[in-house]
Design goal:
single chain; alpha+beta; MetI-like fold; 4-stranded antiparallel sheet; two-stranded antiparallel sheet; 9 helices
């Protein structure tokens, strides 16, 4: 009986949430329809019919090829793909760097602790746009020309033209890599492999290093929230500091870290809109070009809002699900 009652309660809650979402969707549809009607009444072209027209411009970078004769909706899609293309690697890099700096902030070694503190205090107190421009001018002005590209790692070349690195190759119709294409440095450029532009590299580094400073503070607070008795018990069992951190401290600290980490992931994704400042063709940059071509300001802004709302909701749902697993594991 209790199980049936709990099931009915969950179904009722799900139905209520579904009704609320449907009501919100209807409200947004009503608002959009009235806005379009008002614009048309004033003689302003409105509506999303332009999405099927040829765009008339090209997007020179990204996973999704886009030519001038293709429709506007594909331009928006290419901009969205470029946003994901830079946001996902930045999330991974920011997480790794943030955890490393957060642990360093609590290290017994004074120099390591001081370096972690300097990193956090410097990067989180300088505006992200300034850091983005700093990375961009560093890549485009201070690095060597492509003909004399630096090789920080074997087969990896860094120059004013961007970063070039080895990339897997696939045989025609195959699902698995058949080899590895390595870049080769020439007299004037680097050929072969895969390459990313200075714009992409600047956005990636700026988003990752800036967000890592906030993640580091979240990690530090989560570790300090673990009761000292847990660490003492692990030490009494003979665990080394690294083993204590991996198997005792971090699993419990994640219950504090993950909710705040979700906010930083959302902030990173939304901060990717600043990429327009250096000319990286992500969603906002592409939308600005579409707006200039069509004059459909309301529609372009609506597309941007809808896409970022969808990304944020998907990120929140994934992190909330992971947080629930962390809490259950911790209670177990």
């Amino acid at each position: 009986m209790a199980l049936n009652a709990a099931r009915r309660q969950r179904l009722a809650q799900a139905a209520a949430q579904g009704a609320a979402i449907a009501a919100l969707a209807l409200l947004l549809w009503w608002f959009a329809a009235n806005a379009v009607d008002a614009l048309r009444a004033r003689g302003v072209r409105a509506g999303f019919d332009f999405l099927l027209d040829p765009a008339g411009f090209q997007i020179g970078e990204g996973w999704l090829d886009f030519e001038a004769g293709q429709p506007f909706w594909r331009a928006f899609l290419a901009g969205f793909v470029n946003t994901v293309r830079v946001a996902l690697p930045a999330l991974a890099l920011a997480t790794l760097l943030g955890f490393a700096v957060g642990v360093a902030r609590l290290a017994r070694h004074a120099l390591l602790r001081g370096l972690g503190t300097c990193y956090v205090e410097l990067l989180r107190n300088v505006p992200l746009l300034v850091q983005l421009l700093m990375w961009y001018f560093t890549v485009t002005q201070l690095l060597p020309d492509a003909g004399a590209a630096a090789e920080p790692l074997p087969g990896v070349y860094l120059s004013k033209s961007g970063l070039t690195f080895p990339w897997p190759t696939w045989s025609q119709g195959g699902w698995w890599p058949s080899g590895l294409e390595r870049p080769e440095a020439g007299a004037f450029n680097v050929s072969g492999g895969a390459a990313v532009t200075p714009e992409y590299l600047a956005v990636l580094l700026a988003l990752a290093t800036y967000t890592a400073a906030f993640i580091a503070e979240t990690v530090r607070a989560g570790i300090q929230a673990v009761p000292a008795g847990q660490v003492d018990a692990a030490r009494a069992l003979g665990m080394q500091p690294g083993t204590q951190l991996r198997h005792v401290v971090l699993p419990q600290a994640l219950r504090v870290i993950v909710p705040s980490l979700t906010n930083q992931y959302l902030n990173l994704t939304k901060n990717s809109t600043l990429a327009v400042a250096v000319g990286y063709p992500e969603l906002v940059s592409v939308s600005n070009t579409v707006l200039n071509q069509t004059g459909r300001a309301f529609e372009c802004v609506a597309v941007i809002m809808a896409v970022y709302l969808t990304i944020s909701l998907a990120t929140s749902a994934a992190m909330n699900r992971y947080n629930a697993r962390v809490v259950l594991r911790g209670e177990g």
